[in-house]
């Protein structure tokens, strides 16, 4: 199967994700994301009980990859995550940022990563410590 970014044979690379073209060590589409000794997959986060969805979006808020339960709009979540992280980064004048947003019913984890913006939505009674550990491993 040919990828969208590496459609011709001359540009293909075994060290890159076939789906997105990012380095395999940093892509969240099911391939491991390495940081230190641990690795995280998008599926690992969405399998945690009471996690409603997770995904990766561009800096503009367009979905690259996502997995959400029925009833949650990944596109709206991605757009909101990108907006929040961009405002935070401009306000703090930093290149990287992460945000944990608590609402009445849910918790929204947002982190700026190399490929864009990574986000996780979960219920308030989810294992927030475990989710935070997994999100922190993503680069």
CATH class: Alpha Beta
* Content of β-strand: 25-35%
Low-confidence stretches: 1-12, 31-38
Strand order of the largest sheet: 4-3-7-6-5
Treating each run of at least 4 consecutive H or I residues as one helix, how many helices? 3
Query: Largest sheet, described in full?
Result: 5 strands, antiparallel
The CATH architecture category equals 2-Layer Sandwich
| CATH topology label | Beta-Lactamase
Q: Please, how many domains?
A: 1
Mean pLDDT: 79
Please identify the structural class as seen in this structure. Answer: alpha+beta
Apparent shape: globular
Number of strands: 7
* Through-space gap between termini: 27 Å
* Portion in helices: 10-25%
Quaternary structure of the protein? single chain
Core attributes:
globular; alpha+beta; Beta-Lactamase; about 30% strand
Written account of the structure:
The protein is an alpha+beta fold and 139 residues long. The chain has a single domain (9-137), classed as Dynein light chain 2a, cytoplasmic (Beta-Lactamase, 2-Layer Sandwich), CATH 3.30.450. 24% of the residues lie in helices and 29% in strands. It is built from three helices and seven strands. It has a five-stranded antiparallel beta sheet with strand order 4-3-7-6-5, with helices on both faces. A two-stranded antiparallel sheet has the order 1-2. A hairpin with a 3-residue loop joins strand 5 and strand 6. It is globular, with a radius of gyration of 15 Å. It starts with 32 loop residues before the first strand and ends with a helix.
């Amino acid at each position: 199967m040919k990828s969208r970014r590496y459609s011709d044979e001359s540009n293909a690379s075994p060290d890159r994700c076939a789906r997105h073209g990012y380095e395999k060590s940093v892509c969240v589409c099911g391939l491991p994301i390495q940081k230190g000794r641990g690795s995280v997959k998008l599926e690992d986060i969405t399998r945690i009980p009471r996690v409603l969805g997770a995904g990766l979006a561009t800096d503009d808020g367009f979905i690259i990859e996502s997995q959400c339960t029925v009833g949650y709009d990944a596109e709206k979540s991605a757009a909101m995550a990108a907006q929040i992280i961009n405002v935070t980064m401009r306000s703090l004048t930093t290149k990287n940022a992460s945000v944990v947003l608590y609402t009445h019913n849910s918790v929204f984890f947002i982190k700026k990563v190399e490929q864009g913006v990574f986000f996780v939505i979960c219920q308030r009674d989810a294992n927030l410590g475990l989710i935070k550990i997994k999100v922190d491993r993503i680069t």
